[in-house]
């Protein structure tokens, strides 16, 4: 029987509910249990794919091609779980499917049933995502509800999880509520009232939390815990301090110290051993003790919005773990690099330059300038998705003499569309979920930097884009030193380009950042960060 842990949040957003859910998964895996996750988001979009990063932050792509909430990235980075389409539901997706069913006649003679549908999606989603790497069923499903208790939008999801014990038995369900215990400096004390109010809200809906994760700047003293327990109707050992920590990957260790996993195991009657936290502790220690540093310039247009590059920032940090390298990121607005000497001035301090994925024309010329600067000056360069497309445009314009080369995304009438819409894609069709999405295989050229970096000739990486390298320009671009070092197995799609005349220049059409975790840093990020260190030390 799968056990369910529902994670809700109160008082305010950004309390780290996603990290808390991911940490619970981490601790359960450390106890030898197989886990999975689901995120239920209250907004009405079917998925975040059509939202702006300003509204939503990063869109995380699963290997089966779902465009999902960035919390799924935390779940995958904290555990060995690989999630999919049924790991993220939104209100819009729920209504979309019940209305489709209604039109089909599934509810003939009655009214549309939303709550049972949500319940089914929770059970089915868990069931389908249920097979761990070894094919066995899931012991623990962790279901996070987006938003804050008290929001009207999340009510259907909360009602569904309230009813859930009637489906599976109360003994198979635990409710975890993440709340805030603020420290009031002038009074020199911490306050329990916001937590009391938040739990009251939850109980109005009919949910009695089993565990309260109290985000706090200082440890919640025992007497305060007793008080919270009494007023919130939670067992005293169910009141857990979720202390602020310097490194998010320390959270599972900190929550374990507070006894979180034992209380959940007890509450759910899980049969498992004590957690083996040694491997994770080693990962965290390696992250916290780095002796070298490199400066990486991230050239983009959403630079003021770090949430939009969540997985990327994490992957860069992971990339430095094996070599003990601290990665200092500087966020460079592509708009500042245009004009003569713009890139030279804006990137002078960079040991490595990264142009990430993106959409829309703003910032393109600055990104191309950044790539020219990296290419001419031997600065390690890593291009991702749009960054790869810009690298192709840069070589076409500045080396192959195709001055007007461009991407058809930005200039439909370009005489040299070196990046164009792939077959079946267009600028005019439906926008939701229609890009090339999810994991595709890629073959690497023997002897290339790509092959050396991955240490293999065959990889699978996740995609999220509409346009592709235009094969009509392969020869002309190869003639000016751009090596096509990764393609689809049938050789029809260009996946990786590199420059053999450069110390480290690699650009990929996919998003490797979605497959990096601190326990298993992605080799391309490691390769890039280590090349930046060699550059810094004057070794390359
Ligand atoms: N806008 C480009 C495309 O759709 C790149 C997308 C991306 O960088 N994720 O192909």
Give a quick precis of the structure.
The chain has 540 residues and is α/β, with parallel strands linked by helices.
What does this protein structure show overall?
- The protein is of the alpha/beta class and about 550 residues long.
- The protein has two domains: about 5-175 and about 245-280, Rossmann fold, CATH 3.40.50; about 290-535, Class I glutamine amidotransferase (GATase) domain (Rossmann fold), CATH 3.40.50.880.
- About 35% of the residues lie in helices and about 20% in strands.
- The strands form five sheets. It has a nine-stranded mixed β-sheet with strand order 13-12-14-15-23-22-21-18-19, with helices on both faces.
- Helix 5 (about 115-130) packs across helix 6.
- Bound molecules: glutamine (GLN).
What's the SSE blueprint?
Elements: E1 3-9, H1 17-30, E2 35-41, H2 53-56, E3 60-61, E4 67-68, H3 71-78, E5 88-90, H4 91-104, H5 114-128, E6 140-145, H6 155-168, E7 173-180, E8 183-184, E9 189-190, H7 193-205, E10 211-216, H8 222-232, E11 239-243, H9 251-257, H10 260-268, H11 278-288, E12 292-300, H12 310-319, E13 325-333, H13 342-346, E14 352-355, H14 364-377, E15 381-384, H15 386-398, E16 406-407, E17 417-421, E18 436-444, H16 449-454, E19 458-465, E20 467-469, H17 474-479, E21 483-487, E22 494-498, E23 505-508, H18 523-536
Parallel strand pairs: 1-6, 1-7, 2-5, 2-6, 7-10, 10-11, 12-13, 12-14, 14-15, 15-23, 16-17
Antiparallel strand pairs: 3-4, 8-9, 17-20, 18-19, 18-21, 21-22, 22-23
Helix pairs in contact: 1-3, 1-9, 5-6, 12-18, 14-15
The structure holds glutamine.
Glutamine is lined by residues 357-359, 385-386, 409, 464-467.
């Amino acid at each position: 029987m799968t056990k369910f842990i529902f994670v809700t949040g109160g008082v305010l957003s950004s309390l780290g509910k996603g990290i808390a859910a991911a940490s619970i998964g981490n601790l359960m895996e450390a106890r030898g249990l197989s886990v999975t996750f689901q995120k239920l988001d209250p907004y009405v979009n079917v998925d975040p794919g059509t939202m702006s990063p300003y509204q939503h932050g990063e869109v995380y792509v699963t290997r089966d091609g779902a465009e999902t909430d960035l919390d799924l990235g935390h779940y995958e980075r904290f555990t060995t779980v690989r999630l999919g389409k049924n790991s993220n539901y939104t209100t819009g997706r729920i209504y979309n499917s019940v209305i489709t069913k209604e039109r089909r006649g599934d509810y003939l003679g009655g009214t549309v049933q939303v709550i049972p549908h949500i319940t089914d999606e929770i059970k089915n989603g868990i069931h389908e995502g249920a097979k761990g790497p070894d094919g066995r069923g899931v012991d623990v499903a962790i279901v996070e509800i987006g938003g804050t208790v008290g929001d009207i939008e999340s009510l259907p999801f909360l009602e569904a999880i309230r009813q859930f014990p009637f489906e599976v038995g109360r003994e198979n369900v635990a409710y975890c509520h993440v709340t805030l215990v603020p420290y009031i400096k002038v009074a020199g004390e911490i306050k329990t009232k916001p937590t009391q109010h938040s739990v009251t809200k939850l109980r109005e809906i009919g949910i009695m939390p089993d565990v309260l994760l109290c985000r706090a700047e200082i440890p919640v003293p025992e007497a305060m815990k007793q008080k919270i327990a009494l007023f919130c109707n939670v067992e005293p050992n169910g009141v857990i301090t979720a202390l602020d920590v310097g490194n998010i990957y320390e959270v599972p260790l900190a929550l374990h110290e507070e006894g979180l996993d034992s209380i959940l195991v007890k509450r759910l009657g899980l049969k498992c051993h004590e957690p083996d936290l040694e491997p994770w502790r080693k990962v965290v220690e390696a992250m916290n003790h780095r002796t070298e540093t490199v400066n990486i310039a991230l050239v983009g247009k959403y630079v003021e919005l770090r949430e939009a590059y969540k997985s990327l920032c994490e992957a860069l940090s992971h990339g430095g773990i094996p070599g003990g390298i601290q990665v200092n990121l500087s966020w460079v607005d592509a708009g500042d690099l245009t004009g003569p000497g713009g890139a030279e001035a804006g990137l002078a301090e960079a040991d490595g330059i990264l142009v990430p994925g993106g959409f829309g024309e703003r910032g393109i010329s600055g990104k191309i300038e950044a790539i020219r600067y990296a290419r001419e000056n031997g600065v390690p360069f890593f291009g991702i998705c749009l960054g790869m497309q810009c690298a192709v445009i840069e070589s076409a314009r500045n080396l192959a003499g195709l001055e007007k080369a461009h991407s058809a995304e930005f200039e439909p009438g370009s005489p040299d569309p070196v990046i164009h819409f792939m077959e079946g894609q267009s600028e005019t069709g439906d926008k939701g979920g229609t890009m090339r999405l999810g994991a595709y295989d890629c073959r690497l050229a023997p002897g290339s930097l790509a092959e050396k970096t991955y240490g293999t000739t065959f990889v699978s990486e996740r995609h999220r884009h509409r346009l592709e390298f235009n094969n009509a320009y392969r020869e002309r671009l190869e003639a000016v030193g751009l090596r096509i070092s990764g393609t689809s197995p049938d050789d029809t799609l260009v996946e990786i380009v590199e420059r053999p005349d450069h110390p480290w220049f690699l650009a990929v059409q996919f998003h490797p950042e979605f497959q990096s975790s601190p326990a298993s840093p992605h080799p391309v990020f490691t390769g890039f960060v280590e090349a930046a260190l060699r550059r810094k030390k004057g070794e390359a």
